[in-house]
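Shipment paperwork, digital attachment
Item: protein structure file
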Amino acid sequence: MSNAGHHRWLDQELPGLIQSGVLTADAAQRLRDHYGPPPAGAARRAAIIVCAVLGATLIGGGIILLFAHNWRGLSRPMRTVLALAPLLCAQAFAGWAFLQGRTATVWRETSGILVSLTLAAAIALVGQTYHIPGNLADFLLTWTLLTLPLVYLLGATLPALIYLIGITSWAGYAQNLNGHAAWFPLLLALILPWIIHTVRRDPYSSRATFQGWTLVLCLTIALGLSLEKILPGLWIMVYGCLFTAFTLAGRHWMRDAPSTWRNPFGSAGVLGTVALALLFTYEFGWDDVGWRYWRHGWPYESRTAWLDYTILTGLATGAATLIVHTISRRDLLGITFGALAPLTIIGYALAASDIEGVSLLLFNAYLLVLGIAITTHGVRTGRTGVVNGGLLTLSALIVARFFDEDFSFVVRGIAFIVIGIVFLTANIVLARRARGGAA
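Attachment content:
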């Protein structure tokens, strides 16, 4: 863990040690004084990197625009030279940054983004000059694969983000062109060693956080794009297992995160679990579920249906492993979140047997229990944000049912007033408790 990571850990632990009586407030302050303030310059370095990257982006865009202005009047050899010259200069710059070592973060990030942009321009310009056949999906795949070595050679974050976004965009275009994004898991596997390495070095660093959020969002989007959907409703179990794995992985490996932002897997898993459970309280989520509706025809590639079952099996195995570990730790809130995966499987089986009404009741009950569990955990730990998250979950369920059923305006108004009173009361109680603890 970096020095900044040690300071974050110390600041997080000291209040609990004071509250439990292990340390006095004076002893905690002496510890802070002993270790000194957090390392200075982190914000300044981040600002320098942002400015450098923005400058490199503007330079690359300006070069492309200058070429575009005079492009038609140039011969083919001249076009090729002009297309490759910026790329060669950017690669020379990247080579210089590589020789400076791992400490030259600004130059590695700047050269990485510059090479990525000039590489994209070179591919597009050469392809247009010599009329090389292809489409946007081919361009994205070529660009992202050629960008990948920059991640490992320069140790740069931005090329890694470009790669993740690029392969996700490729998956979308591949599916849109009546193809199949079956290669996405393999493309994702190529970048995972770097992400794992980054997280192990400092799981709460800005680099690990940005890569984690990008990975979570891209994986959530690309997973739905990669499914062939030969078996209707299979996505219900797939996403149930995915968000279960996200939540429990975040609670297991990143439980000491100083904020929810620094725990992308856990935060995304919690949000996904609540959203998915709320969706499954409606009938349209269970329409045409089951093996009696096998899809066929030109939009569906039955030969690639094996990928759907492989993805489901892998996610279910990972979720089951994390659930067992969570049960062994007696993490009640984690167990509640982990119930999403088996409940989606049970709900799918019920809906496939033409009793989707039971599935609706099942997820209404689950969302109620989940909201109560989150609220209770927040009250017990004194975390106002968690309490409000639990109350918002309960409110979402109540509001959804009010608008789903034929309740009068009087009943709805009274219910909303009660919910508001509960919100205010919980926050006032926690605020007073916090002031009493501080005193």
